[in-house]
Amino acid sequence: MRIDLTPRANRSALADALAPFLAFLAALLVGGIVVAAMGRSPAAAFATYFVAPLSEVWSLQEVALKAAPLALIATGLAFCFRANIWNIGAEGQFVVGGLCGGWIGVASHGAGGNTLWVLPLMLAVGTLAGMLYGLIPGLLKVRPGVSEILTSLMLVYVAELLLDYMARGPLRDPAGFNFPQSVTFDDAARLPYLMEGDSLHAGVAVALAAIVVATLVLGRTLFGFTVRVVGASPRAARFAGFSDARLTLAVFAVSGGAAGLAGICEVAGKIGQLQPSISPGYGFTAIIVAFLGRLSPAGILVAALVIALTTIGGEGAQIDLKLPLDLTRAFQGLLLALVLGADALSRYRVRLVPGATA
Amino acid sequence: MTPDIVQMVLVTIVAAATPLMIAAIGELVAERAGVLNLGVEGMMVLGAAAGFAVAVETGSTLLGALAGAGAGLALSALFGILTVVLSANQVASGLAMTILGLGLSGLVGGSYVGLKREAAPHLDWPGLTDLPGIGRLLFGQDAFVYLAFALVAGVWWFLWRTRAGLTLRAIGDDHTATHALGLKVRKVRFLAVLFGGACAGLAGAYLSLAYTPFWAPAMTAGRGWIALALVVFASWRPLRVLAGAMLFGGATVLQLHAQAAGLGLPGQALSALPYLATILALVLLSLGRRHGGSLAPAALGRVFTPHR
Question: Over chain A, what is the mean pLDDT?
């Protein structure tokens, strides 16, 4: 049997938009079968994963809080991936952003006088640190020509170890009974809450703003145009005189900066101090979000909410149904695989030719 | 240092190098056929979990190793369907496999956390194994180590001494031309991906059955990624995988010894050593061949869609 792929002459916009939803349904089906095989009720699992988090105000806020860093990182990554640059070290850039920005929070602890500068400085330092850390694989790709995939990933492990060292060592709270964590930040070093009494902090607004800005930059500026052209046809871009090197550095700076900003927002928002670990893999999950959102900022917003929902639902399922948290991760990996497969189906006409050989 | 201490250090280096060698030689075959599989880490960790689970249930290390390889094979089959059959993006699909593999390994291995097993037995050849200085190194390893060396030799022979190997390399260099010649691009690529996946799974099983005879979540700790770097480091040549794996194994062991000796450096700095060494090695390598151009298979990572 042979399987033929013929590029579709006129791709249907509807099929393009529906592909991720179909993939999601297929992932649900497989997930349901797995849950049933583990001897639990799939219906109860679906309710816990997808309905329960939506039914209460506090869990809705949790979903938004989880979605914010994912959307912010994935929006930055979309610039990279669109230009066919593979920054898969956003996790490291997130950690370095949180660490460097958080350092200001530790250093300014207990400082008297005017403290209005603390939070802006933290955000700026966090963004800049993520940007610079992202530029390392960018520079290594441009100059000696090292694959950015491997270097950006190796730097994740380095960043995690650096944070671990700093939180247990130099930045540890001297009065903290030897707990491996820094002082709790002053209020001046914390992101303000959006509404009194709620858990939503300003990081959610930052993520939404980033999505608006990214939409404008991608759609309305020469830089955004360059990114799209290089992604669609590198040869055409070279003929048009766009510089590969400059674009590579630019998209690494954008994605690194976005990840760094997400990192410091998490530290100054939800966590409020430095710990040996500040991310449950946001940088990697954001890669799924970027593809699920089809590398467009608006799509990424939806995808981030969906993935955040499964994560919060997964935590609920762990408590209520004793379903392991790894189930959520496996589900997310499967979802990404199916989205990529569904993409192929909307791009090509697939025909099975029995009897023929490949 | 006495010869016996040198031998002891070398034995640990070989042990640290073995999983890298097995995973890298499999990935080398896939990349030579033109497919970049970033799912190695996921296939490896799933192989570690499945291998350990089956070994505990059956009491057989051999069955465990087979199960590990089988788990890697199954995950790579999914990867092959996505990238080879459906022409999906290889980078994104590989990452999906790593995330999926990490999740599945947690599901498979969940109930085996904390269990221990006897490590895979080392060869004991009375007389030979007791030879001073070299006995343990040459005649006292476990079966995985010999298999790893045999795999490297076999892949070298296959790629450079057989017609099928020539076909595979040609497909990795120019899929359009080989397709026009009537060679079965997608079939060869799919088989190469399966071989790579089985090797990654086996490498994982080595970790949980021989290297540290237990299963712990995410126990591969980036070794799958280092194996990928190793292929680049080896310039896509099998025998250089051997040398590279020893070098990286050496960095790992050095790091462990330095921690034990208490050099005054923070443990985290030493733990970062293998990753930093990988980056440094890749940079030096690129600088060294500034004028020679890339040695990578020309079609590596590029999607092939046969038009008719």
Answer: 90
Rounded to whole angstroms, how far apart are CA atoms A45 and B220?
30
Q: Are B86 and A5 within 8 A, CB to CB?
A: yes
Which of A82, A87, A147 to probe the B interface (max B CBs under 10 A)?
A: A147
Q: Which two tokens stand for residue A356?
A: 């023929």
| C-alpha closest to that of A286 among A258, A314, A265 | A258
From the candidates A5, A171, A323, which should be mutated to test the interface with B, based on the most B CB atoms within 10 A?
A5
pLDDT at B261 over 70: yes
CA distance B223 to A300: 31
pLDDT band at B293 (very low <50, low <70, confident <90, very high): low
Residue A356, judged by CB atoms within 10 A of its CB (0-12, 13-18, 19+), counts as exposed
- Helix boundaries (H) for chain A: 13-37, 42-46, 57-82, 90-107, 118-142, 148-168, 202-220, 222-232, 234-239, 244-266, 282-292, 297-320, 326-347
Q: In this structure, which long-range contacts are made by residues A108-117, counting pairs with CB atoms below 8 Å and at least 24 apart in sequence?
A: A108/A186, A108/A188, A108/A189, A109/A183, A109/A185, A109/A186, A109/A189, A110/A186, A111/A186, A115/A186, A115/A188, A115/A189, A116/A188
Question: Could you tell me the pTM of the whole model?
Answer: 0.90
What is the least distance, in Å, from the CA of B60 to any CA of chain A? 25
Q: Say if the Cβ atoms of B282 and A146 lie within 8 Å.
A: yes
| CA–CA dist B186, A358 (Å, integer) | 7
Query: What is the SS3 assignment for A330?
Result: helix
User: Nearest 5 degrees, angle CA A119-CA A69-CA A280?
Assistant: 110
Encode pLDDT of A108-138 as tens digits: 988 777 888 999 999 999 999 999 999 999 9
What count of other Cβ atoms lies within 10 Å of the Cβ of residue B24?
Answer: 36
How far apart CA B13 and CA B230 sit, in angstroms, is 16
Residues of B in contact with A329 (CB under 8 A): 99, 102-103, 106
CB A283 within 8 A of CB A76: no
